[in-house]
Amino acid sequence: MQRRPLAPRADWQAQAAATGFDYHTIDGAPYWDESACYQFGWRQIEDDLEAATEELHELALALVPEILASEELLTRLAVPPLYWDYLARSWSAHEPQLYGRMDLAYDGRHPPKLLELNYDTPTSLFESGFFQWNWFEQQVAAGALPAAADQFNSIQEKLIEAFESLVLPEPLWFSCMDDSSEDRGNTLYLLDCATQAGLATRYLPLDQLAERDGQFTGPDGTAIHALFKLYPWEFMLAEEFGPVLLSSATRFLEPPWKLLLSNKGVLPLLWERHRGHPNLLEAHFDAGPDALLAPGWVRKPVYSREGANIEMRNLAGQRLAVEGPYGQGPWVRQRFQPLPRFDAADGSPVYTVIGSWVIGDRAAGIGIREDSTPITRNTSRFVPHFIHD
Amino acid sequence: MSVRARKRSRSSTLIVMVPATTLLVSACGGPNRVEQGVVYQDAAECSAQNPESSAQCASDYQAALAAHPALAPKYVSQEECEADFGGERCEPAPERHAQGSFYMPMMMGYLAGQMFRPAPPPTGAGGIPPLRDGQPQAAPAAASADRAQPLYKSRDDQRTFRTAGNAPVAERSGPVTVSRDLLQPRAAGLSRRGGFGATATRLGGALGG
User: How far apart are CA B164 and CA B105, in angstroms?
Assistant: First the structure.
């Protein structure tokens, strides 16, 4: 695993604009960064990342029925009791999931370590599945990458296959907060894949979703029988329309039971059940920010996104914290795992996290995020990769 | 040398995101039972085109007008109603809530036809699929809806006559061929919207992880 500088394609910004990828620059800073790329060997991709992803996915899925059967575990994960049955029904009805992303710390030499699961509203899908794929094809065609190289990225193919096999009413509606171009780009990419799979699709800004007689509808009263939502389940349960879920016949993607696996409480649960697993970091439930955090630990709220509200103390005891709005509910602490450090062209350090995609229960590819700090955030740069021994 | 399985998608194309503005993809409906009907703005337009049937025009129009308050979608405020149907195209509904009246779009036309008389189509011949498993479908709101039903026009499409359930019916007055499945009237309940999104609005920023 190496980080290599590479000249960006001359027209990549025009290509981004043509596909609505307008969040390639966030607050004036680059988000999509193809001035460098990562090279992996085949063994690193297949034996380490792919194998670890599918194994961790299986361990995570095995937790779901155990949590649903235990009031104690549901309580530890701060799942509102009003919705326990709702989640359990979605699991026992085998409501299908579409996708998820797990974040791994991996340096190319040691086993990948699971940092967390993003199993409800994972993003960076468009840049992983589409834009990165095109970067690779074009750089090979231009001779900038070896012709024998490959990329770990069957994301789009597996998404289309997954949509083809989903049993859901049509049309399938797609919804997100319309004022976030990143969320909209990810949602429309999924809508595009579903359309290519032959499904009838519709887009609806989330704030246009309406309710009538206990059922979800479009703003004009059209019944919505199936809805993909890029919006966290824990928000939905807490908001005004939460109770409508209980009377509604709408089927959701991701299904309600995915709430459990986007909860960071699964990290200590996984550790308790598979202590010493080579792909797991030691983790425990934690008393929260009022308690002292010992050196070598990272504290996170069970519900948080984009690196918010994370506090870490490295082995030397240095404290690093990201403020954020998610300070409620239970907390977990996880053994501090230094992210692999690489050097940027100007010699400054970059820290790398691998987002490994699971689609239809199979490892489907990776996307790499880089930050100049050891906490990966919403603004961390996305850097493409290729495989070549 | 062994042949290695390729690790990437065979191809990668977009059909909806290019151009980025194309958001809506239409679905094609399956084969439906169709019926002949007529669409008019009001009894006067109907009579002008069918002088010999002016009595029928008046009675169909009155039937639709009578069904209108029960069938029209209801909104908590005039603003929410006008967001869907346009300025000065909403009126108070008969129902009231604590802060005042509900609002509904004004009737902009009506649909009448053979399928509404002498009797409505038997249930099971189509109709709006039941929304809630195991519960009976809502019955037509009023007997008058059996012979004619009100039509509306949305704010962003002032040409198309639509049913209370938003099914497009026609872009101009006169005879139409319509699908039975779309036209079974259904009583409107209270419609609310915007019940998801508050947390994101409070927190700001993107939500994905």
Answer: 9
- Paired with A301 in beta bridges are A331
Is A45 buried (19+), middle (13-18) or exposed (0-12) by CB count in 10 A?
buried
Q: A45-49, long-range: CB within 8 Å, 24+ apart, which pairs?
A: A45/A152, A45/A387, A45/B7, A48/A106, A48/A108, A48/A111, A48/A112, A49/A104, A49/A106, A49/A112, A49/A152, A49/A354, A49/A356, A49/A363, A49/A366
**Whole-angstrom Cα distance, residue A71 to residue A69?**
7
CB contacts of A325 in chain B (<8 Å) are 202-203
Complex ipTM, two decimals?
A: 0.89
- The string of pLDDT tens digits covering residues B134-169 is 333 333 333 344 578 899 999 888 899 988 877 788
**Nearest CB to B24; choose among A158, A203, A209:** A203
Question: Per the CB < 8 Å rule, is A231 touching B189?
Answer: no
Closest-approach residue (CA) in chain B for A192: B16
Helices A51-68 and A266-273 pack at an angle, to 10 degrees, of 100
Q: Mutation test of the interface with chain A: which of B28, B163, B193, B201, choosing the one with the most A Cβ atoms within 10 A? A: B193
pLDDT tens-place string over residues B72-90: 877 777 888 898 899 899 9
